[in-house]
Fold:
Amino acid sequence: MIDLSEAQIAAAKDNDLEAVTAVVKATDERVQQLSWRYATGSGRTDQDLAEDLAQTGRIAVWEALARFKGKTVAEFFTFIDRTLKGVMSDTRKEETRQGVSRAVAADFERALSMAGGDPYEAEHLATTKEAMGARRMSEEMAYAARLSYQGIKYLDAPVKHAGAHSDVYDEEITLMNLVEETGVPADLLEPSDFERARRKQTTEKVHDTLNEMGDQQRTVLMALTGIEPVGYYGTEHDDELAADFEMPRYRIPVIRNKGKARFAELWTTSAW
Structure:
């Protein structure tokens, strides 16, 4: 974006053609960035969608002028940025959520927020009363919603900030934000960067969930899949596991089954 003056913004609000042109020109770089970002997912960019989003964004800038109530240039660009994200998100949903209604798409994205951006976990959560209440979906509908979602990567679902172990979502932190924290410019980010950020979120959630469990259940579950520092034992080496961690051998299958149930309960109800 290039600089604008407060006087130009005020004049644009009064429909001064020269000022409106200046505003459109000043915001066009951000329009292009966001259109590309919202049209990119699953390793590719839908160029036709990007062009549609850019056009939608330019119209949204012009229409938003009358709604701007602030005065400063900084307030204006914050307002425009928020406006563009909302308009492009809605437009993308209309274009990409084929096969499910807008209500179902919105419910799935609510589950996606709770799942930390993991669409497969979101599919599970969408079917649970604990997560969705009266809005829970059938397994078939949740599956359809996931397939619809995966047509384009949704980067703006609010997720818990890595390392911030509270029970409250910070709606300003998204998967895109987490990736950008790596220091890589947004326009140079690749699909692998987003996937790395998603894995980091999932790994932290796994460890946080395990840390809420009792010592024996945590140890047996970590041994089941090889999570350090316990290491891999699977289900074939219960004798060694019992000896190494001083647990009764006959109790390990019971601990494992109860641990799985407890882990599923904590995972589903976690605020991530």
